[in-house]
Amino acid sequence: MGGIRKFKHKRKFAKNRQETSESKDGVRGNYVDLVKESAGFEKYYKAQKIIPESEWDTFLEYMRRDLPTAFRISACNEKEAGILLDIVEGNFFKGLINPDDPEEQKKKPFCLPWYPKRLGWQVPISRKDIRRSETYFKLHNFLMSETDSGNISRQEVVSMIPPLVLDVQPHHKVLDMCAAPGSKTAQLIEMMHSQDKLPTGVVIANDIDNSRCYMLVHQAKRLNSPCTLITNHDASIMPNLFVS
Fold this sequence. Notes:
Blueprint: H1 2-20, E1 23-24, E2 27-28, H2 39-48, H3 56-63, E3 69-73, H4 78-89, H5 102-105, E4 110-111, E5 120-123, H6 127-132, H7 137-148, E6 152-154, H8 157-166, E7 173-176, H9 183-192, E8 202-206, H10 210-221, E9 228-231
Parallel strand pairs: 7-8, 8-9
Antiparallel strand pairs: 1-2, 3-5, 3-6, 4-5
């Protein structure tokens, strides 16, 4: 009887969850918009005088905008990356966009021109809008499944830049002292595996927060790299590291 009650409870929970997320006019529900206001934030940055007073309202308006969705195709395996790139550049996105609607064309995914080998992509709509829309449900599932399998990494565009500037090579020893949640760490690991042979270098990913280290482990283990070490330590008193 206990097992039956447990099963009924799960079924009821699933039904309630489905009802709260059912669509209304093509929009999935149960997502609450955040209030993007902070008196302390505004007071501090206004005191810095980093922008003219006349541009302050415009500055806040842009700060409150949702960031677009961006992702990278994993470069760990060049052959698999090529197959996934063919899917992305092929017919996958065409069904999401109405070619006769100019407004819809503005939402068309595009390749980041500065990212190597066409592996960086951006969708000009926010993650929130992708989750809300029935139209983009296919895209949402694609991003989720490929992220879990390590084939792509969802990452903000600005976060992709530092690893590229570092130009990490397979023989480098890299210490990421404040690594969680791990998107840049994953990118560094991929750069380590940019050649066919096993890297001789290592990425040491550290974070002082134990709970955030679990997110870091989740990010790194998707890539199955033997050249990764995760530590949970205060980076200001990091012990000496000897790598043979």
